[in-house]
Amino acid sequence: MKRNTWQKEAVRSALGDAGGFVSAQALHAALRESGSTIALATVYRALTGLTDEGEADSLQQEGEVLYRACTPGSHHHHLICRRCGTTVEIEAQPVEEWARRTASEHGFTRAEHVVDIFGVCARCSDLADRASRP
Amino acid sequence: MKRNTWQKEAVRSALGDAGGFVSAQALHAALRESGSTIALATVYRALTGLTDEGEADSLQQEGEVLYRACTPGSHHHHLICRRCGTTVEIEAQPVEEWARRTASEHGFTRAEHVVDIFGVCARCSDLADRASRP
DNA sequence: GACTTACTGAGAACCGTTGTCAAAACGATT
DNA sequence: AATCGTTTTGACAACGGTTCTCAGTAAGTC
């Protein structure tokens, strides 16, 4: 039987607070920072659980996996700031259809797709501009 | 000055032969299999070089990086078989535009996107069907 | 409160990848 | 063809993120 522990709740909550995509290690550091004694392995386990249950999305970037609290049960994609990790959830029916059509046109079955946009958000763009042109 | 070695050529050629996305380790194994004495580190270095020069595309899957020989200088996406790695290059102008528009609508700049479709190709589907219903 | 058993913490282990450095070899030059 | 400066290679160590192991802890049940 599945049990509820303060550790799982702490990870869920910290992931929510993060607002964007964060690594397991960053999340662990943040939790320790705020006084928690949670172990790194537990953070990994909790994140895996959340992802399996559809409460979190994950993506790989530069050799590490990033996690984010996501609207459960909804299929969506992400617009992610490369600088600060801030993320916007996007739905795009036309892209869904395009993906399905493209796959079946080539005889592919059981198709899933990865559609993510990486950029620099308005706030980080501003900061960068001000830094380079003072 | 950049030099040409048989090792680089061997990697380029093996990557071409692979036909789909393969890992550095798999490529190294294949090369050794066919009698080459090339070192693993060299395969990694060659693949990094090819990717930098736009002769290969790469993507991350399950904690490892996969490489593929690609049409140089063309922006395209991939339709990849989860079973055998076979890959089809796809161009999709509407998706490009959608990505650009979505990013700018949310104030994001310097946007790049990742758009890949994973599925099971016709041949692998056939094989799976035959295996389960003999 | 006692019991069962899932979960946690600490560290070792794992695995893909990158760094190090002496030896090899490419390519320009003579 | 022999020499030379420099790039590249190969073998292995090191690295970093993630997973495994296992004894100890604690959630939920009776």
Secondary structure layout:
The structure is a homodimer.
Chain A: H1 6-18, E1 22-23, H2 24-33, H3 40-52, E2 56-61, E3 64-69, E4 77-81, E5 87-90, H4 93-105, E6 109-120, H5 122-132
Parallel strand pairs in A: 4-6
Antiparallel strand pairs in A: 1-3, 2-3, 4-5
The structure holds a DNA duplex (30 and 30 nucleotides).
Which features does this protein show?
homodimer, 134 residues, alpha+beta, Arc Repressor Mutant, subunit A, Dna Ligase, domain 1, three-stranded antiparallel sheet, three-stranded mixed sheet, 6 strands, flat, DNA-binding
Task: Tell me what you see in this structure.
Two copies of one chain form a homodimer. Chain A has 134 residues and is of the alpha+beta class. Chain A folds into two domains: 1-73, Winged helix-like DNA-binding domain superfamily/Winged helix DNA-binding domain (Arc Repressor Mutant, subunit A); 75-134, Dna Ligase, domain 1 (2-Layer Sandwich), CATH 3.30.1490.190. Helix content of chain A is 45%, strand content 26%. Chain A has five helices and six strands. Chain A has helices at residues 6-18, 24-33, 40-52, 93-105, 122-132, and strands at residues 22-23, 56-61, 64-69, 77-81, 87-90, 109-120. In chain A, the strands form two sheets. The first copy, chain A, has a three-stranded antiparallel β-sheet. The first copy, chain A, has a three-stranded mixed β-sheet with strand order 5-4-6. In chain A, strand 4 and strand 5 (87-90) form a beta hairpin. In chain A, helix 1 crosses helix 2, helix 1 crosses helix 3 (40-52) and helix 2 packs across helix 3. The longest helix of chain A is centred in the first third of the chain and has 13 residues, at 6-18. The N and C termini of chain A lie far apart (59 Å). In chain A, 28% of the residues are buried. The model of chain A has no long low-confidence stretch (mean pLDDT 92). Chain A binds a DNA duplex (30 and 30 nucleotides) through residues 1-5, 7-8, 23-25, 37-42, 44-45, 63-65.
